[in-house]
Amino acid sequence: MNVQPAECDRQTYSDHVSTESLGVFYHRKYTASVHRELGNRLIQEDRFVFAPYMIPERNDVSFFGIFDGTGGPFAADTIQNTIIEHMVSTDAWKSLMTAIDSAETGSTKIRQLAATAMKQAYANADKELLELCQKTDEHYTASTGVTVLLIKDYIVVAHVGDSRAAICYEDGGAYVTRFITTDHKPHSPDEKRRIKAAGGIVVYSKTRHATTFLRCGDYLKRHARGERPMQIQYSRAFGGKELKRCGLLCEPDVSIYKGLHQHKALIIASDGLWNVFKTRTAFTIVLRAHSNGMCIVLIVHRHKGKNPSITLVESAIMKNTAESRNSDNITSIVIIFNA
């Protein structure tokens, strides 16, 4: 299914199905697609927001996000449904919308307002989520978040946790690919210091390779009493009510880039994808699928369609299957900028 702008004009797309694709969305500045697969998991905990026309009265503001839940989908569900509302209700957002249309506003001011709006949106969405968790006894639910705001000629990327964004651009006639987010892990020096200062502890797993967990200091005592104390593999997240007192934050890192036309493509995805592919492989798959006008799974197996996100996600699942590995939930949003 190819969805033209006239057919999905001024809508925000998000859903709760285990496997789905919205098709390819053609914007005057970019082509975007999204796809999500359950993998070998019993529950789909990934959620996404796909809003090419986020604001009805203008066509130069788009918003995309992926939220990878843990401890059930409640946190990811909630953030999926509230993050845009929290963003547009901030004072910084209102100032940003005024500044972005003024020829007199400098780039530095726009960057400051955009970063503030995203940080306030994450904080306010997390506050609402924690209140809902308290009311509904959802003590263990949490979610990562990686979001992309395209506004005028700016790319604003924010994230908490280990869902990632990667970018591709041309330099000297060759494509360069790299991550533009850094995972928030408990063992990172700055994160570890903050966690310990808050009374939390960082534990290295004896059974899972290279995995560290954030726990509260009373974890073992509570576990011995038969309770179910929470632990988590990242140091920043939405939700995680029980761990907020022990150093878990929901303050996003925000990076801002100017010049959509200077970049070739952008991928945001849950860790189910990035545990399989490096950035160069991921961009090779989606750019070839886009240029050939069909999905090419691992550049060998072909099937009908023109959705690079389907190509990418199914390629990851096929690679896991070929190597006898289970697949996590995988969600990918691919944005390919027009030259």
UniProtKB/TrEMBL annotation:
It holds the Pfam family PP2C. It comes from Babesia bovis. InterPro entries: PP2C, PPM-type-like_dom_sf, PPM-type_phosphatase-like_dom. This is Serine threonine phosphatase 2C containing protein, putative. Transmembrane segments: none annotated. SMART domains: PP2Cc (SM00332). Residues 31-337 form the PPM-type phosphatase domain. GO terms for molecular function: protein serine/threonine phosphatase activity. PROSITE patterns: PPM_2 (PS51746).
